[in-house]
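hey so u asked for the seq, here:
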Amino acid sequence: MAIPRILIAAPRSGSGKTLVTCSLLELWKRKYSLAAFKCGPDYIDPMFHKEILGIDSRNLDSFLCGEAQIKELFRKHCRGKELAVLEGVMGYYDGLGGTSLEASTYEIAKITDTPVILVVDSQGASRSLLPLIAGFLGYREDSHIAGIIFNRMSPSFYPVMKKLVEEELGIRVYGYLEKLVGELPESRHLGLKMPHEYRTLQETLKELGKRAETTIDTAGLMALAGEWAEKTKKTFFPALKRAGSFKGDLRIGVARDEAFCFLYQDNLEYLEELGATLVYVSPMRDPALPKDLDGLVLYGGYPELHGPALEANESLRKEIKEKLEQGLPCMAECGGFMYLTEAIMDQEGNRWEMVGAISGDSFFTGKLRRFGYAVLDEARIFGEKLRNLPFHEFHYFDSEEPGRDCLARKPLSARTYPCMVSRDNLFAGYPHFHYWSQSGMAEAFMNACGRYHRKKGEAEAR
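ran it, structure tokens below
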């Protein structure tokens, strides 16, 4: 795979890798055709990438997808691009359960054979940063770490630290970012706020790009990316055999607005490859579903922040419930699952009426209820028996009826817990799935949509 590529990682979360990534994307988009990627299951960082580039940023998650699928996704989305920029997740070596290298940024660097720039937060430290960097370089012989960028570094002190690191550790320092004053990404109970919530985001991003142009050796980074690509141009990225498309025009409704924005673009494209025509609906604004749907998908987001608008759209809520009762196939994840319950109790204790297709209310627990990866060893989805479905959860909400039709197993432990509501035409719960896991989940959904489509046609013929 000869495309120049580079991965921005860090020793831990909060070190500034998103700022450095966004700075470089903002700067490089003026000169190159870019592909952007995020390691792991994160939904929000790719939104910031998209805000900068105007194109979708893709997730590379080795637990959800596996090595072969990661290579295929990387090959697919790098096609026709001049440079690929990958952003890591958590600390560089942080993987499954916090104890394994599996699903870590390091593993993605190995799978894609990409050079890594380690972003080191320098606030409150100076020479002590050297043993930190040395530890990351020496922890694995094939660390892939090829350079350093300092974040929150004093311009006057940077030449001193650059000289120390390069002379004592033998690794190149490619620049620094000062502490940025302005509107920066903030946290809420479910990760970062989203791009549209920042009034001055575009101005901040432009300022980031301007600073990167003067304080980061972007020419050196491009040379590194190109040299690495040339060195590894024989790396094998095979094209996988894809499932055959379904015959006929299956119209799948997809909820998409501020309340439902956590989705993988690769999932949508997977459905399209299987023969779906996707039509979008806003549960906050659209009074009715699109006509002639054969299926409905409700992904995650922040429905609890938009309770008044979702409750006020009574006509759509009633129609969705009626359609589900009539057999319309539906998949719902996390926020989408919460939308299907009777009501959502938000953080302030307000109760907002929802669809009511699933009994019980959803409510804020005040703490991280579930977090991390797990697997459904076995599940019946739309009547089909499937095995080994990997998923990810991250939510502070719970529900009175979170589902008990499947058993989730935490990897690297014996812990299990019930989850999912699984009916003939509904598969819903808090877990997030990636269709490239090759579990057959999307195919089972499309099979159900096909049966529903044929049933509608037979009814109309009569």
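The radius of gyration is 23 Å. Confidence is low (pLDDT under 50) at residues 186-191.
lmk if thats what u needed
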